[in-house]
Structure formats: structure tokens, C-alpha cells
Amino acid sequence: MASHYTTTRRVEFRDTDTAGIMHFSAYFTYMEQAEHEFLRDLGLSVHLRDDEGVISWPRASAKCDYLGAARFEDVFQIHVSVARLGEKSVTFRFRFTRDDTQLALGSITAVCCRLDPSGGPPRSIPIPTAIAQKLGQFVTAEGKRATEATDDSGPSS
Amino acid sequence: MASHYTTTRRVEFRDTDTAGIMHFSAYFTYMEQAEHEFLRDLGLSVHLRDDEGVISWPRASAKCDYLGAARFEDVFQIHVSVARLGEKSVTFRFRFTRDDTQLALGSITAVCCRLDPSGGPPRSIPIPTAIAQKLGQFVTAEGKRATEATDDSGPSS
Amino acid sequence: MASHYTTTRRVEFRDTDTAGIMHFSAYFTYMEQAEHEFLRDLGLSVHLRDDEGVISWPRASAKCDYLGAARFEDVFQIHVSVARLGEKSVTFRFRFTRDDTQLALGSITAVCCRLDPSGGPPRSIPIPTAIAQKLGQFVTAEGKRATEATDDSGPSS
Amino acid sequence: MASHYTTTRRVEFRDTDTAGIMHFSAYFTYMEQAEHEFLRDLGLSVHLRDDEGVISWPRASAKCDYLGAARFEDVFQIHVSVARLGEKSVTFRFRFTRDDTQLALGSITAVCCRLDPSGGPPRSIPIPTAIAQKLGQFVTAEGKRATEATDDSGPSS
Q1: Cβ under 8 Å to A: D residues 128-157
Q2: CATH code at C50?
Q3: Using CA atoms, how far apart are residues C76 and A150, in angstroms rounded to an integer?
Q4: Nearest CA distance, C95 vs chain A (angstrom)
Q5: Nearest CB partner across the interface for D32, out of B14, B40, B46
Q6: Residue D52 within any structural domain of the chain
Q7: What is the total count of domains within chain C?
Q8: Residue pair A59/A36 in contact by the 8 Å Cβ criterion
Q9: N or C: which end of chain C has fewer CB within 10 A?
């Protein structure tokens, strides 16, 4: 049974542009805010410090389809679900709505990585079991089929 | 014969994050900067004021695949081409490179719209011929085939 | 009797930098968010549309003193008061705290202006009485003395 | 004999707002870009890695007075000088101009600090001699008098 997490935001002045609407790039920072709020709600963080250093989640891809325009001070909802849960990566899906209007549909694929404290590139690792179990509860029905049908497409370490 | 436009940027401190790399959302603002610089190079602007008001280019979609990580003060190139030229919309493609490394591949689909000065929603219009001709020179070979095979998928007015 | 308005924010990932702390420029956007939330709480908006067009509040100055560092996911408070209420301008004061730690002290001076729909420069106007009365309740004791001692230093129209 | 460094920028779409002008917070990121470009021009960086770790320059204060409005695609200059050079801190001054119009006057006071790799607070240190000598060439006449008259007001370690 799929579930999702919903949060609310308001269009801030800094995120509008001279065309009078919320700038398309701002949807990506709002997606990330919603993802992080969702992870916190699960007792997780996107930037975990453990004995071996830091686990972070660099992005493999991000996309957004824009269906409507939002203006200064508009209140909107962001609905977060898990579209796909791989061995090393997860794809979050984000639906932006204002009342009954769909504003945008986006997604972010993040790869579970251990950061190199000496500045080398992040190294992908399997998602720790405790995290995978929590995220697993939010995989959508489509996501379950996609996950079964494919191998993990995250970047190789 | 396809052509493309190249510009150079440097990772600014504001665009890095606590993981030590350029934030994924910054690629979208750099794509837009490259798009606008490309349009200026063609003698165009993304925000044209004419007798009837303002023609602008709201986005129908944007996406980015991340292939590498960029750090503070890294210099990188953005290569812009036209992946698809429709009747009312255009898809720009952006390739980010640092030396011989590919950092990211992105795209933005923008819809030619007339803005409503009284605050109503933007209304899509056919791309003016003078603009379409200039952009047409930068359509890639794949873009030419895609353009011939499909109708315009831009949002209806 | 002075009063103030308090709101709460959390350090978002996009607002951190490669030094691991919230970027200094982000305090200014948080100040603005707090100002606008305060104005909404008073039943006002920073961008009011009336019969003659739009009243907006361009900034005459902004400053911030940084007393501490905030990190990703830190929760902090912003306390808003009115340091000075002039005929055409208002100075908001912002105190950032995390628990009992002061993080920053900032201020923004905004000038009440009518926007020119044809793209000319904003023109300063006296703050409408209904707005001045509401803001007047939040003038600090120091602000009251400053207001009595000086003329309005806002830009002339 | 005072000297200064000048760089050129253009108002990007993302930095405009629904009032049609460059957002006041964007001046601070442009100041920082100009500061970093100035430091690179001197062979320095704001984020130096040496044997003992990283030297960075957290900000003690930042301010900006706005004298004009800049619009999308306006080209402007930023003139950087050193208003004050202390033992542990430096104050950069920034003058924004568009043709002969002054747009803004800003300043940033940065404190020379060694970052704690284990996440503790930055610790202020005397500015290394090689850096102080290079910055010293750009101190304005007013800055020289201010520097002689005062002790370093940077935060104590």
C-alpha cells in the first residue's frame, strides 16, 4: 500500500522573477526541502555523520514538468512519494498543487554515497538496511513494478 | 549541419553546499544563463518588449543528468544546442564539461508566450519567424529528425 | 510599549556552502521572508495592487552582523521589530537566535513606492495611514526616539 | 596610492523579482563574486587548503546601500577596494555602477579563520603576511587612516 508525505510552502519574493511568476529553478530547491523534511519525518537526514565519516546523497538526475504558474505569496502543497527504490539509489517523486490545480510534477534520483573527507569524489554504497526499510513504505505501485523490473541504474562506484 | 554555442563559467561559493560540491539546482540557473547568452548572441532576448506587450518563454520542462561533481572555483564549459524546434516551443540541450570530463547533460523546453500585463496566465503563441529562423541553425541532427516526426508538444493556449 | 513578531526557520541544504555553514547572503532572504510573514500577519502585503497600480517596497539599505554560525538543519528564530518609522520609509530590525545563542543582527530599510507599469523607476510615496498605524505598534523604544529626532531619510521621489 | 579592481556582470533572470528589478539580496552574492575574482587576480583564494587544513573567511558583517535599480540584462560594473585591513580581518568596499549611474555601495568584513575539520566553530587567526601584503596595496586613503586609528575589531577567537 503506497503512502506519501505532504508539506506546504508559500512562494517567496526572492523566488519570483520579472515575468511575475515563480522561477522554474526554485521548484528544484523546494523539491529538496520537501525531500529533507520527509527524511527528517522518518528520523533520517540527507547528511548523516557516522563512525566512518559522512553519508550523503548526491543527485544522479532531476527533472520537472511545469503545468501551471505560481505567483508571489501563493500557498502550495508538495506531495512526496518514492517512485523507485534501488540497491544504491532512490527516486523521489514530487507533485506540486495549489488548491485543486496541479502546478508541477518533478523527480530527483539520489545516490547513497560515502563522502571522502580528503576531497576525492563521493563513492556510492548500498543504502543501509534501516534506511531502505523506512523508504520502502513510501514506494508507489508503479514504483514497485519498476523496481522489480530493473537493476539499479545508479552510477557505479 | 548542426552547430552549437559555448560559454564558460566558474563555480561560485554561493553555489557550493556543505557536501563540498556545486549544488544540483545551480545547474539549472547556469543552463538559463547560457540560454540567455546564446539568445543575446543571436540578437534576441528571452524577454522581448514589442508593441503588444512582452513575449517571454515560460518553461514546460527542465531536466539534468549529473555525471560528475564540480567544486568551488572549478572552471567549466556549457555547450548549448537546439534539440527540437516546434511551432510554439523549443528544447535547448546543455552539455557541461570541465576539461575532458562531462559534468552534466541537461535540457530546458521553453514555450513562446505573450504575457498578460493584467496578471493573467501567459498565452502560448507561434514562435515569430525571425526567431525560428535563427534558432533553426542550431538544431542538432537528432533534433531535426525529432522535429519532423512529431507535432509540437508545447502546452495549448 | 514595543512589541515584536517571531518566526522559525531551518537551515536548508541549498543555503549551506563548502565551509559547512549557512551562507551569509542567505540571512538577507530569510530577513525578507520574516518581514513578509510579519506584514501578512498584520493583514498587509509587500506587493499591494490597488486602483492606481502596485505599491511595493524597494530597499534603501540592508545590513547584517554575524555573531555565530548556523549549520545544515539547525532550527533558528527570527525576531522582527520596527527600528524606525519614517514618512516614506521603514526600518525593520531582525534578530536571529538558535536556542539562547545570537546568530545575527540585521536590518532592512524599505521605501514605500508606487511602481511604474511602463518600466520607469519606482516613485516614493508617503506610507498610507492604514499601514503606518499597523507598523507603528511595533516600533521599539529606541526607534521611537530616532523617529522623533530625524526627518525621513528615504530617497526623494 | 590607492588602487581598485573592477569586474563586469549582467543582471541574470534568476536575480530579478516580480517588481521587475534585481533583488536586493543578489547584490551580496555579486559582491562575493567580485571579492573572489579580485583575490584570484592576486593569486589568492577565499578557501585555501594548506598543511594544517583550510583557511577560510567567514563574514563578520555585510551591508549595502541601494541608489538605483537594475533590470534584466543590464550590464554593470563592480569596483572593489580595501576599506580597512586589520590584523585578523579585512573590509572590502564595493561600488556598483551602470554607465555613469551609481547603483549601490556595499561592504563586507571578513575574518581570517582556520576551519575545524571535525565541525567545530571557525577560529580567527592573524592574516598570513603574504596575503596581508597583497591586500595592503588596495587599501584606500580613508582605509589607511581608519586602520591606523583603530585596533582590529574582528571577533576574538
Answers
A1: none
A2: 3.10.129.10
A3: 43
A4: 20
A5: B14
A6: yes
A7: 1
A8: no
A9: N
C-alpha B6 chain-centroid distance: 12
Residue of C nearest to B117 (CA): C117
Q: Other CB atoms closer than 10 Å to residue B101's CB: what's the count?
A: 13
Any A CB within 8 A of D20 CB: yes
Q: Does residue C156 lie in a domain region?
A: no
Positions of E strands within chain A:
5-10, 48-50, 53-56, 59-66, 75-85, 89-98, 101-111, 113-114, 123-124
pLDDT digits (tens, 9 = 90+) for B20-79: 889 999 999 999 999 999 999 998 877 777 777 788 899 999 999 999 999 999 999 999
Q: Note down the domain range covering B99.
A: 5-146
Question: Is the overall model pTM greater than 0.95, yes or no?
Answer: no
C-alpha angle A135/A138/A143, rounded to 5°? 100
Q: Which helix (H) or strand (E) holds D55?
A: strand D53-56
Band (C156; pLDDT cuts 50, 70, 90): very low
Interface of C with D in 23-82 (CB under 8 A): 24-25, 28-29, 32, 47, 54, 56, 58-69, 71
Are residues C58 and D71, on separate chains, in Cβ contact within 8 Å? no
Give the ipTM of the model, two decimals please.
Answer: 0.88
D13 touching B (Cβ < 8 Å) = yes
User: Could you tell me if C120 lies within 8 Å of chain D, comparing CB atoms?
Assistant: no
Q: Which helix (H) or strand (E) element contains residue C97?
A: strand C89-98
CA–CA separation, A105 and B61 (whole Å): 9
Direct distance between the N- and C-terminal alpha carbons of chain C, in angstroms, rounded to an integer: 32
CA distance C57 to C109: 9
Nearest CA in chain A to C40: A73
- On whether the CB atoms of residues A90 and A107 are closer than 8 A, the answer is no
The answer to whether residue D43 scores a pLDDT higher than 50 is yes
Mean pLDDT of B120-129: 88
Whether residue A9 is contained in a domain is answered as: yes
From CA B56, how far away is CA B115, in angstroms rounded? 7
All residues of chain A having their beta carbon less than 8 Å from the beta carbon of residue B28 are: 24-25, 28
Contacts of B20 in chain C (CB under 8 A): 18
